[in-house]
TrEMBL record:
Pfam families: SANT_DAMP1_like. InterPro entries: DAMP1_SANT-like, Homeodomain-like_sf, SANT/Myb, Swc4/Dmap1. It comes from Prunus armeniaca. One of its GO terms (biological process) is negative regulation of transcription by RNA polymerase II. GO terms for molecular function: transcription corepressor activity. The keyword Cell division does not apply. Residues 17-34 have a biased composition (Basic and acidic residues). This is Myb-like domain-containing protein. Keywords: Chromatin regulator, Nucleus, Transcription, Transcription regulation. It comes from the Eukaryota. It is found in: Nucleus. The keyword Transcription regulation applies. GO terms for cellular component: NuA4 histone acetyltransferase complex; Swr1 complex.
Length: 249
């Protein structure tokens, strides 16, 4: 007695052989060059995310007529004013070390700060709230710290804000440029002359930025709702205006 006798099912003989369903021929994928068979089997034939390097490039050797060595050699940089001599490893080809300036010296950028004389200061630069000593200190620090006014304000001897330091520097530079020019048209395209620094505008910009950064999430949602409502009203008015124009025509 088997399960079919218990369930009362008829006994039917199964065919010994069943026709196998025809399957589409499997496309054979060729293993890319530069990938081992084991790695290709693990990724399941999926192309790698990173491009494979051709083995021919890995086996490529430098020309036989070049003898490359690395030597510990001294160097100087034009970016330094003290002619300090340091050492680094240098790639030397056929015993000839590279010549020229230090490769990173080109990234040493400096700001051209305007210089003035005592006569020019007396004629064009006198200010009731600034002394000559303070102005000299300001320009020396601008040259030293490359116009980083945050650093200058932190180290300035007297109590001056960043806006006051900027205003004094740019006003003096602008006055000197205009005084030395043969005509105002010669320096009209200079950025300092064309776009003078405005203290009130800078303070208002910082105040508005501080208000935006200090907003809460609730205030941001309220502002977004107000802007969305204003946009909806503007679009409704535009549609109404277009409707009136269409009726009139």
């Amino acid at each position: 007695m088997d399960a079919k006798d218990i369930l009362g099912l008829p006994k039917t003989a199964h065919p010994l052989s069943q026709e196998k369903k025809s399957r589409p021929p499997k496309e054979s994928q060729r293993k890319p060059d530069g990938i081992s068979r084991e790695v290709y089997a693990l990724i399941g034939g999926v192309p790698p995310l990173m491009p494979a390097v051709e083995t021919s490039q890995l086996k490529k050797r430098p020309p036989t007529d070049e003898k490359i060595t690395w030597q510990w050699l001294p160097f100087t940089s034009t970016a330094r004013k003290d002619n300090l001599q340091l050492y680094h490893w240098v790639r030397v080809v056929n015993g000839v070390p590279p010549t020229g300036d230090y490769s990173f010296a080109k990234y040493n950028k400096s700001v051209d700060v305007v210089k003035y004389t005592d006569d020019e200061y007396e004629k064009y630069l006198t200010d009731p709230i600034w002394t000559k000593e303070e102005t000299d200190q300001l320009f020396d620090m601008c040259q030293r710290f490359d116009l980083r006014f945050i650093v200058i304000a932190d180290r300035f001897p007297s109590s001056r804000t960043v806006e006051e330091l900027k205003d004094r520097y740019y006003s003096v530079s602008r006055a000197i440029l205009m005084a030395r020019a043969a005509s105002p048209a010669d320096v009209s395209g200079h950025p300092i002359v064309k776009e003078p620094y405005k203290v009130a505008q800078e303070r208002e910009r910082k105040r508005a930025l501080s208000m935006v950064l200090s907003q809460t999430k609730h205030q941001e949602r309220k502002d977004a709702e107000v802007l969305a409502e204003a946009k909806r009203i503007a679009e409704a008015r535009m549609v109404a205006r277009e409707t009136v124009v269409a009726r009139g025509s």
